[in-house]
Amino acid sequence: MNIVSAGISYVNVLAELHTEGFDAPWSASAFESALASPGTYALIAKDEQDEPLGFVLIRTVADEAEILTILTRPNARRSGVARGLMVEASKQASRHHVKKMFLEVAVDNPAAHGLYTDLGFKEVGRRKAYYDRGDGGRVDAVVMTLELWSF
Ligand SMILES: CC(C)(COP(=O)(O)OP(=O)(O)OC[C@H]1O[C@@H](n2cnc3c(N)ncnc32)[C@H](O)[C@@H]1OP(=O)(O)O)[C@@H](O)C(=O)NCCC(=O)NCCS
């Protein structure tokens, strides 16, 4: 697996991949706007045939970084793709003097919660009814943080 930077030329690829993991995927123009923001960047994981396996989008502000979104294609899950992306994102953030990473994850997303817990993220709070599930139902977000001293 190779992990490389995904700049503005990747926005269509990122939008296509996002449909494979989210009910309300981001459009290519949403990724374009995000990547045009200062301190925001994406990393994409590819296999030996150069096919995309997943990606992560990160925003850094001063000494904090937020994971905006992360996804692994369904047929590549549970093989370390997201862990690899998160570790590389953490190393890059650390090199840019980021001290702490944070993210929000829905309480009904055990895969993502398991990933972040596995990486050492700790729950620091909750946002009530943060995510709209489209059927009138809403679920809480868990706010999690990781200190980057170890990278
Ligand atoms: C969450 C997601 C990114 C995980 O990607 P992945 O590449 O399959 O994760 P990895 O293989 O790197 O897993 C690393 C660790 O995370 C945890 N984990 C991953 N998937 C899990 C699952 N389904 N259930 C429980 N724990 C899980 C495990 O601890 C795993 O380590 P292990 O396989 O050695 O047990 C993927 O399931 C996905 O794309 N989901 C849809 C989009 C999404 O929900 N994104 C997160 C939004 S906050």
Written description of the protein model:
This protein has helices at residues 11-18, 28-36, 81-95, 110-118; strands at residues 2-5, 40-46, 52-61, 64-72, 100-106, 122-132, 138-147. The chain is an alpha+beta fold and 151 residues long. It has a seven-stranded mixed sheet, with helices on both faces. The mean pLDDT is 95. The structure holds coenzyme A (COA). Residues 21, 54, 70-72, 77-83, 105, 109-112, 114-115, 118 line the site of coenzyme A.
The biggest beta sheet reads: 7 strands, mixed
From the spread of the alpha carbons, the general shape counts as globular
The count of β-strands is: 7
Strand order of the largest sheet: 1-2-3-4-5-7-6
In the CATH hierarchy, what is the superfamily? Answer: Gcn5-related N-acetyltransferase (GNAT)
CATH architecture: 3-Layer(aba) Sandwich
Mean pLDDT: 95
Within the CATH hierarchy, at the fold level, what is the topology? Aminopeptidase
Distance between the termini: 20 Å
CATH level-1 class: Alpha Beta
Order of helices and strands: EHHEEEHEHEE
Tell me which ligands are bound.
coenzyme A
What count of helical segments does DSSP give? 4
Radius of gyration: 15 Å
Which strand-content bin applies to the residues?
Answer: 35-45%
Total domain modules: 1
Helix content: 25-40%
The assigned structural class equals: alpha+beta
Low-pLDDT segments, ≥5 res: none
